[in-house]
Design a protein that fits this description.
This protein has 6 helices and 14 strands. By secondary structure, the chain is α+β, with helices and mostly antiparallel strands. The protein has one domain: 4-Layer Sandwich (CNF1/YfiH-like putative cysteine hydrolases), CATH 3.60.140.10. The protein is globular, with a radius of gyration of 16 Å. The two termini are 19 Å apart. The protein binds zinc ion.
């Protein structure tokens, strides 16, 4: 079932929270039955969620109040608003939350978004609304064990994201270690890794895996700044 990956008291007296769903919490993919989706979301975080129409791009949405901009085509959201859950849906891509002094971000990072700079854009947008330093919370994603990658593509990624992205699958094929790429980029941006859940979504049956099974179902990472008791 859903787990809290991080809970941090902010200097303002508010609390930043980051929760990750599992398959058992239901399919969080957008486009499913709206009533079901809303009740599944409420079980994880109260209030209207801002979810994104993810396109593997580099656009970042600034959320001003709960539910603001829901359905916007973007791959990251930032907010300083209280009780305004921001979420990304994933099944192998890396879900990332960034916690600043009084603001938060969520990011959907696949290899294309990473290559094109979604993390840089998200950190930039968060910097515009709250002070650093930022800490990153990384949720379950596909491991190098299950992420065979062509040699040429891997060369390109290593050039962009550092040599640590070169991994090996369980049967020793060249593979992309996408979390290593996330860590490299965040390091260059002065962001530290506070929590890294290295669970492989393809190996672990608790999670949906697009690469593992071809599913269109998704788990969600949701982050919000809690102002009251719940
Ligand atoms: Zn694996």
């Amino acid at each position: 079932m859903a787990r809290e990956l991080a809970r941090r008291s902010l200097p303002s007296g508010r609390t930043a929270r980051v929760v990750m769903s599992e398959a058992a919490d239901g399919d969080m993919a957008v486009g499913g039955p709206e009533n079901l989706l809303v009740s599944q979301r409420h079980a994880l975080a109260p209030g209207s969620w801002t979810w994104l129409e993810q396109v593997h791009g580099t656009s970042v949405l600034e959320v001003l109040e709960a539910g603001d901009g829901a359905g916007t085509a973007a791959d990251a959201a930032v907010t300083v608003a209280g009780d305004a859950p921001i979420a990304v849906q994933v099944a192998d891509c890396v879900p990332i939350a960034l916690l600043g002094s009084d603001g938060i971000a969520v990011v959907h990072a696949g290899w294309r978004g990473l290559r094109d700079g979604i993390l840089e854009q998200a950190v930039h947008a968060l910097s515009a609304i709250t002070d650093g330093p930022f800490q990153a919370v990384v949720g379950p994603h596909i491991g190098a064990c299950c992420y065979a990658f062509g040699d040429r593509d891997l060369d390109e990624m290593a050039e962009r994201l550092g040599p640590t992205v070169r991994g090996r699958t369980r049967d020793s094929q060249p593979a992309l270690d996408i979390a290593a790429g996330v860590e490299h980029v965040l390091d260059t941006l002065g962001t530290t890794m506070a929590v890294v859940d290295g669970t492989c979504t393809s190996c672990d049956e608790r999670y949906w895996s697009h690469r593992g099974t071809g599913t269109t179902r998704r788990q969600a990472m949701v982050a919000w700044i809690q102002t009251g008791e719940r």
